[in-house]
């Protein structure tokens, strides 16, 4: 078995690994980069018009034979570890005849997001797998391990062929709402692994441990109680752990949770895979707000039926204004105009519940300043979607791999000083390892 990390040995984002035997070739993740070579934020808009071939030539898309259209001998399969852009963002460039293997909920989110944001259907041939059930692509066997991560349906992969084993960790942590899943993993970690390709997103951010979602729940409650006015929260609709945390904090403080129609739809989709609250008769304390431009876009691109599904749980601007003292409202910078049209929204709390790096984005920055000018108190409540160093060490100790390869990290050089019990193999992007 041979592998090549096309992207990820020197950076977080754009993860892509090619693995092959004499007869079979697979690609594990096909992510969009988060940063450019000069360290600036990667913005795909400036490359959008380029052809697939031009994107490969410029080093934006990975140079993998058989991954794109018109190739003679196609890649045999693509594995997607989870639904974050930096792991699947370039999937639409892959030849649609190549089967794509992913978790059931991940498939759902990918299809939903494509329809929602691009008004299109994904044409890839999806084959979903179940956790801990092995499957084969040619002579390569894959066993998916469910992982605790800020994406709800995330997996690591044990990849076996020719009597050799690679473990790809994907993105993971141990302090989320699926912390028990990680504990299970530690007790059942695969052994005799030749190469562990392990993420290290938080390496370089210090040795501290991160708060759990349960601890965040208490913090939300404290902040909710600190105002007599509305609580606004900016978080990711796809961070289901956080949505559940906020819901629980709302329940415990008798707040009305208001989400927009996009967040409502994600919650509803995910509720078929786990016990997740969503706007419905069973959860009358969750109501749905219809942002103007978003609703118009949905009506045009997806159809009005999509909007009607939450009609019974709709909350109007007037009602939000009237009941503002009892409301926790999940918002985004793109909803600024809608917020301005709701009367009397001022002097409450604004809780930022995402990675602080995004605060530097001009759109978010001006949104925060706008709310501050309306008297909102700014709070940050967040925990990382990725493992702290102690948790990373737990994975290494449980698996005792023959080689540890840094991936999905800006600080791969530090691995050898942190994981001293194993051999660290520092790879380069594009380097072939047999
Ligand atoms: Zn992720
Ligand atoms: Zn990632």
Can you tell me about this structure?
The chain has helices at 52-57, 85-88, 104-118, 179-187, 213-225, 240-252, 261-270, 292-301, 304-308, 317-322, 336-340, 362-373, 389-399, 415-418; strands spanning 2-7, 16-20, 25-28, 77-79, 99-103, 125-129, 135-137, 140-147, 154-161, 164-168, 195-199, 231-234, 256-260, 286-289, 327-331, 349-352, 377-380, 403-407, 423-424, 432-433. With 434 residues, the chain is α/β, with parallel strands linked by helices. The protein has 2 domains: 2-206 and 386-433, Metallo-beta-lactamase, Chain A, CATH 3.60.15; 213-380, Metallo-hydrolase/oxidoreductase (Rossmann fold), CATH 3.40.50. It has a 7-stranded mixed beta sheet. The longest helix has 15 residues, at 104-118. The radius of gyration is 22 Å and the shape is globular. The protein starts with a strand and ends with a strand. One zinc ion binds at residues 82, 84, 149, 151, 171, 385. One zinc ion (ZN) is lined by residues 84, 86-87, 171, 408.
């Amino acid at each position: 078995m041979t592998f090549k990390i096309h992207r990820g040995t020197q950076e977080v984002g754009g993860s892509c690994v090619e693995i092959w035997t004499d007869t079979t070739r697979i690609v594990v993740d096909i992510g969009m980069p988060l940063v450019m070579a000069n360290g600036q934020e990667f913005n795909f808009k400036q490359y959008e018009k380029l052809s697939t071939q031009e994107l490969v030539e410029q080093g934006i898309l990975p140079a993998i034979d058989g991954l794109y259209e018109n190739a003679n001998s196609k890649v045999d399969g693509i594995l997607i570890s989870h639904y974050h852009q930096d792991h699947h963002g370039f999937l639409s460039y892959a030849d649609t005849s190549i089967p794509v293997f992913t978790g059931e909920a991940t498939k759902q989110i990918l299809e939903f997001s494509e329809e929602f944001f691009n008004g299109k259907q994904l044409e890839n041939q999806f084959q979903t797998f179940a956790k801990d059930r092995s499957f084969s692509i040619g002579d390569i066997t894959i066993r998916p391990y469910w992982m605790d991560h800020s994406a709800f349906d995330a997996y690591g992969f044990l990849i076996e062929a020719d009597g050799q084993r690679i473990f790809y960790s994907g993105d993971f942590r141990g302090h989320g709402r699926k912390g028990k899943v990680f504990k299970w993993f530690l007790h059942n970690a695969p052994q005799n692994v030749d190469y562990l390709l392990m993420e290290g997103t938080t390496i370089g951010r210090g040795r501290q441990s991160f708060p759990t979602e349960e601890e965040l729940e208490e913090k939300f409650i404290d902040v909710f109680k600190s105002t007599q006015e509305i609580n606004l929260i900016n978080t990711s609709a796809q961070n289901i752990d956080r949505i559940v945390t906020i819901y629980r904090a709302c329940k415990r403080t008798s707040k009305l949770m208001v989400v927009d129609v996009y967040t409502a739809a994600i919650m509803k989709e995910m509720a078929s895979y786990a016990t997740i609250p969503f706007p419905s008769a069973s959860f009358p304390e969750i109501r749905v707000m219809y942002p103007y431009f978003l609703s118009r876009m949905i009506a045009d691109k997806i159809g009005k039926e999509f909007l009607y599904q939450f009609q019974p749980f709709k909350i109007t601007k007037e009602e939000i204004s009237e009941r503002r003292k009892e409301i926790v409202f999940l918002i985004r910078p793109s909803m600024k105009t809608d917020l301005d049209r709701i009367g009397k929204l001022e002097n409450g709390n604004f809780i930022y519940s995402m990675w602080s790096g995004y605060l530097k984005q001009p759109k978010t920055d001006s949104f925060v300043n706008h709310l501050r000018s309306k008297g909102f108190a700014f709070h940050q409540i967040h925990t990382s979607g990725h493992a702290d160093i102690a948790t990373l060490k737990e994975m290494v100790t449980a698996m005792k791999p023959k080689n540890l390869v840094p991936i999905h990290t800006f600080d791969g050089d530090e691995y050898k000083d942190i994981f001293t019990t194993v051999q660290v193999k520092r790879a380069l992007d594009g380097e072939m390892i047999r």
